[in-house]
Amino acid sequence: MTETVVETKTYPISFGDYRARAISLGAGLHVLERIVDGQWLQLTETYDPASKPPLGSGMTLAPWPNRIRDGKFEFGGTSHQLDITEPAANNAIHGLVRRRNWDLVEHSEARVEQSIEVGQHPGWPYALRLTVTHELGDNGLTVTHTATNEGSEAAPFGLGVHPFIRVGDVPNADCTLEIAATSYLPLDPTRNLPDGPPQPVAGTENDFTTPRSLAGVWLDTPFTGLVPDASGIARHVLRAPDGSATALWSDAAFGWVQVFTAYPERGKPYLNRDLALAVEPMTCPPDAFNSGLDVVVLEPGKTWSGSWGVTGE
User: Fold this and answer.
1) 110 exposed, middle or buried (CB, 10 Å; 0-12, 13-18, 19+)?
2) Confidence (pLDDT) at 4
3) Range 10-312 has CATH code 2.70.98.10
4) For 89, what's the count of Cα atoms within 13 Å in the CB-facing half-sphere?
5) Is the entire prediction scored with pTM above 0.85?
6) CA angle, 26 as apex, 137 and 154 as ends, to 5°?
7) How far is CA 228 from each of CA 124, 248, 255, rounded to the nearest angstrom?
């Protein structure tokens, strides 16, 4: 049965060769398209906006991305117990704002800004305000996130996003993938939690520093050691056989990227796609509130900001 989302709003934007829609649920990216030879081609997966986003497609994951073991963490000498939102693995997953409708701040032809108060929740006493801005320009889509600590005590923070990319109608299994990362984090396959420290990708099945075919590749893997290009951004590229490509980039605020392949035969279908590919910018890895790895500590009154985007080639 399809799960209906109540009062979800979509916000279309356009600029030059690009058009996109942001969505109020989770301040998500609903779709990004580029016109090529008179045809609009999808650079991201999409779905019926009246339904639940499949596999969290496009959602903003905050104030932590991914999972927290047993929903427990300690910060500033205080122990916290979050609600368990992944019962099968006994984890708290993907933060507190992805299943809520965000407030519209501003919507113009090429830009939409949304915001939300995270609010007080079991195990989460910190007063954070988040914003997400989707903006189109000559180079495609730029998404900028901010988090402001409006409370009186320091707060831990992490953020991730869950976009699925594609190159028009080309099957992903016919494409190559290049990931600008030198290390990966091993995960326990049962709970998708860290199973040791980051390891070099060199010489492993997780080495995508040069383009590799996606056919038959199974990934649900956090990567780090991201390698920036000359402009200071890390670029991960999905390329079709004819040379056309979709690139997802992130700035230095995002030190991690989780790459996930969705296959129906693995029990993770993305609607009617034989293979869907999520390339997920993250500021920190799974269970970071316990490991402390790359957790942002927001002091009262301070604001964090980071950007990522998608472009067609």
Assistant:
1) middle
2) 44
3) yes
4) 16
5) yes
6) 100
7) 34, 12, 10
Question: Smallest Cα–Cα separation from 140: which of 277, 57, 19, 11?
Answer: 19
Residue labelled with tokens 């992490």? 158
Q: Judge whether 198 and 224 are in contact, CB under 8 Å.
A: yes
pLDDT digits (tens, 9 = 90+) for 35-89: 999 999 999 999 998 888 999 999 999 999 999 999 999 999 999 999 999 999 9
What is the gyration radius of the CA atoms in the chain, in angstroms?
18
- How far apart are alpha carbons 155 and 295 in whole angstroms? 10
- Which of 136, 160, 104 shows the shortest CA–CA distance to 14? 136
**Residue 74's beta-bridge partner residues?**
79
How many whole angstroms separate alpha carbon 78 and alpha carbon 171? Answer: 49
How far apart (Å, rounded) are the C-alpha atoms in residues 200 and 12? 41
Two tokens at 214? 């996606």
pLDDT range class, residue 266, cuts 50, 70, 90? confident
